[in-house]
Amino acid sequence: MNTTFDVAVIGAGIVGSAIARKLAGYELSVALLDARNDVGDGTSKANTAILHTGFDAKPGTLESRLVGEGYHLLSEYAELTGIPVEHTGALLVAWTAEELDALPGLRRKAEQNGYGKTEIVGPEEVYRHLPHLGEGALGGLTVPDESIICTWTTNLALATDAVGRGVTLLLNRAVTSVEDLGDRTVLRASGGDVSARWVVNAAGLGADVVDRLFGHDRFTVTPRRGELLVYDKLARPMVNKIILPVPSSRGKGVLISPTVYGNVLLGPTAEDLVDRTDTGTSEKGLEFLLGKGEKLMPDLLREEVTATYAGLRAASDHPDYLIEADAGRRYVLVGGIRSTGLTAGIAIAEHVAGLVRDAGLALVPRENLPEPPRMPNLGEAFTRPYQDAARIAADPAYGKVVCFCERVTAGEVRDTFRSPIPPATLEGLRRRTRAMNGRCQGFFCGAEVKKLLESRGESTCEQRHAPLEAGR
Amino acid sequence: MTSGDITTLTPAVVIIGAGPSGLSAARELAPRINGDVLVLDRESTAGGIPRHSDHPGYGIRDMWRFMSGPAYARRLVRQAEAAGAKILTNATVTNWAGDRTIEATTPQGRVRVEARAVILATGARERPRPARLIPGDRAHGVYTTGHLQNLVHLQHGKVGKRAVVVGAELVSWSAALTLREAGCRTVLMTTEYPRPDSYSLFSIPGRILFRTRVATRTRVTRVIGRPELRAVEIEDLDTGARRVVECDTLVLTGDWIPDHELVRAAGIAMDPGTNGPLVDNALRTDRPGVFAVGNLLHPVDTADIAAIDGAHVARSVLAWLRGRSAPAEQVRLIADAPFRWVAPEIFRPKDRAPARHRLLLWSDRYIPFPRIVLRQEGRVVARKRLWWPAAPGRVFRVPTSVLAAVRPDAGPVHIGVET
Ligand SMILES: Cc1cc2nc3c(=O)[nH]c(=O)nc-3n(C[C@H](O)[C@H](O)[C@H](O)COP(=O)(O)OP(=O)(O)OC[C@H]3O[C@@H](n4cnc5c(N)ncnc54)[C@H](O)[C@@H]3O)c2cc1C
Ligand SMILES: Cc1cc2nc3c(=O)[nH]c(=O)nc-3n(C[C@H](O)[C@H](O)[C@H](O)COP(=O)(O)OP(=O)(O)OC[C@H]3O[C@@H](n4cnc5c(N)ncnc54)[C@H](O)[C@@H]3O)c2cc1C
To answer: How far apart are CA A302 and CA A291, in angstroms?
Structure first.
């Protein structure tokens, strides 16, 4: 590629996509690179999808500030683009005297983090909210604004918005080395080199490796695996809130949360690995979760498991987000975005824009920025195409259900292939539509969905259907 | 009537699911009632599971023939249509809008169906990998039989070359047949039971025909391979020893769960054993005018039995439409170990006998000539030796004559075996 971009962002996860989008709002040419064949195929696709208020962050840290800001920025952005969000609220539950004693401290901490709406409640109140909770809860702390969100749509909206603003998206580009040419950097990448004046490293699990390519040795990423169980939608009425444990030194602990798709999550585990690509599940992990679940909510375990998955947090030896600009090298590291990056992504992007401005990159706001995209709705709290009589009447493809469990229509599948960032694989299609994510996992629809992937969504929609005989 | 963009249909009976049970019910009902019998199915072709189960073995007890799944499905569709039933495909029933009113999504629009009777015939599916909690890599090449047969028979897709099949019951051999047709060798079948669960009539020639080993008392403990499946880890349940078996295809068969979403959405009483709705001899659920048939009730029996349910329920629906209600006296039947479930679960002594005069049970243990015992309030009310085995992986049939001595005014009837 001959052009030199003003900025190249490495990593098209939530953080990198948010940064590319933000910078493309200025008079800058921006490239967004990722090693994978799709955006959002790293940690951003497999998390617990909670939009955190940041009530339990470590006060005074950059993470605390950016999570707090990110909560509001992403809530607004979700509203604008149609990312499904449900403001369910959370209830942090104490099971031991020690945990009960910790609640006032957590409340004070929340206030230090700028969040003043928590309240300590007794066991009756806990069971009033969560009648299916296991026995033995002693009390709790309410966090009324903790919310659930669709992480897939968030990533895709940010990346689509970035592309809409003129960002050049370069997939299948794994950066393997860099060359400093004085006024620009050449990123040597598998699918072709990319040249840019500034480089932002938002490479998630690979951020320390990329950082070393720039001559630094500041931190090491440890992939911390989190395994999760997804329960059947039939369990959803039992869980109307996010159920949090009292955090310990070992992490946030195992939670139960509703999802915007109408399921219930149980997880995550926390286990340090060496392999940065091992998103498999383990016997130990699943057993541990079942053990926890049996105590937290035995009724939940009587329901069917729809899916299991694992995500890798980019944990690091640094106690906070590690976001630093190197003006001389025209390079920004966005590292150590561990377990809050979904929430904080847009705020991180704002912060990075400030850093590069301070480091000398002129940020001239662009006029006539295109509107942000309106994303297809994957959330149960909003009307989905299969429910939308007017939409089906206008286009029968929205009445042709192809994935029965998740009620995904042929029209939605087709639309993804006509979108600015079409799916490259079955997994990509699943993240964009929910197809095959349901309880049958393909028993009924697997073959049909595969065919649609191969035909890029164009097969079954064209069939003719005789009108219904009404009024009989 | 069209209100907004919703079309309202008002058949006398709506049947949800056009598999063997739903289509048979439609065939029996359509000529006998005033008004329409409407069958809705979410698939683009009616026929249910047999559509893609492309091997002989269908129609034995209901049509007295031995035919392939697809031929059987086509025949059921023809019969139902010839009888005057209307079949609407591509119609996914999504929710209830009243006691006997449902809503569906179709390419022709959203539809509301207000009927006087509803028959639920939504069938059963096999538990997929996540529901079985098999850990390991997220590998491609892991299927259920339904997925596999859809892929091979309906979409003419490809699978791998070396398969491990989990299960050794009837459906597992059906999967092995499909694999063979797709050019994939079944190198191993695993079962947690001490012996293959299918009829030896099938499994002995099957073993020779497929050159397949059946590893009894084993289970798959890990999936290996990213992104393509490379192997599975198998554990010997008795010794705990584990070994790795190379394969590029894994088929998870059996382990059935009814498609009961609409049942639960209605708040209809469920049986924890079958995971389907509780029904009585006449196949009534506890919601008046709502009936259930087929594998939704007994996961999972052969298609002919599902079809016979359909014929059986037709008479019950006719009686309901004529305003007749169920005889009040009833006792609950409860399956004791080694039985996992019994269907129907509610016995009304004054009512018509259950379909084929049989109770259906599911056993977790192989018993060659079981002696069945019925107890009520701790007292033995009936004993019967049966000359056919109870075996895991297939339905065990008990003549309803054993119920003759049941006391309608006493507590639940426990059905077990005497050893
Ligand atoms: C189990 C779990 C639960 C979580 N729960 C929550 C939650 O509830 N709420 C919340 O806010 N956050 C949560 N998180 C954290 C959140 O998911 C992450 O912080 C966020 O997704 C990080 O986004 P990212 O863009 O930094 O990283 P990623 O999404 O991993 O993106 C990094 C990208 O960089 C690419 N890349 C890496 N190296 C290179 C290279 N050399 N060349 C080119 N491309 C490269 C990768 O392919 C990848 O796509 C959770 C995380 C986990 C694992
Ligand atoms: C691999 C395999 C091999 C088999 N081999 C044999 C054999 O050799 N011989 C034999 O006799 N039996 C065999 N069987 C069993 C046989 O297929 C079943 O017993 C039979 O299909 C059950 O009929 P059914 O009507 O209860 O359900 P199904 O055939 O499962 O039909 C249910 C129908 O309901 C529809 N449906 C479900 N939910 C909805 C909804 N919400 N809206 C609209 N429609 C809905 C489905 O699309 C489906 O068409 C086999 C089964 C399998 C899986």
So the answer is: 13
